Amino acid sequence: MGNHLNWANDPQRSGRFIFWNLLGVADLVMAVTLGVLSSEGPAGILVRNGLTTRIMTELPMSLIPTFAVPLLLIFHTIVLAQMVSRRNEQLAEAR
To answer: Which of 7, 42, 63, 80 meets the CB 3.0–4.6 Å disulfide criterion with 13?
Structure first.
């Protein structure tokens, strides 16, 4: 395996990888939060000058919050679970 692909065995690199994945999850959560706060409903406290997230309710833009965001959250969850599992295995082997 190439050295550039060997990040999983390096604790410092795997820590950075987990950190960036957690930032990705935080970004997705923030996007959903801002989307709700910018909606036309009662939670839309960020609506100004009639600018809302109404366009996100029509195809093809509606695919982003209904398909892409949950899919990316699932991917982040799977990757984080695999990294935590791998780190636990490495710690068990080191004992």
So the answer is: 7
- Do 8 and 83 contact (CB within 8 A), yes or no? yes
State yes or no: cis peptide before 42, omega within 30 of 0. no
pLDDT tens by residue, 16-74: 888 889 999 999 999 999 988 888 888 878 887 777 888 888 899 889 889 999 999 99
End-to-end CA distance of the chain: 26
Alpha-carbon distances, residue 62 vs 53, 67, 69 (angstroms): 10, 8, 11
Vertex 25: Cα angle to 34 and 7 (nearest 5): 150
Of 62, 73, 67, 79, whose CA–CA distance to 28 is shortest?
73
The whole-model pTM stands at 0.75
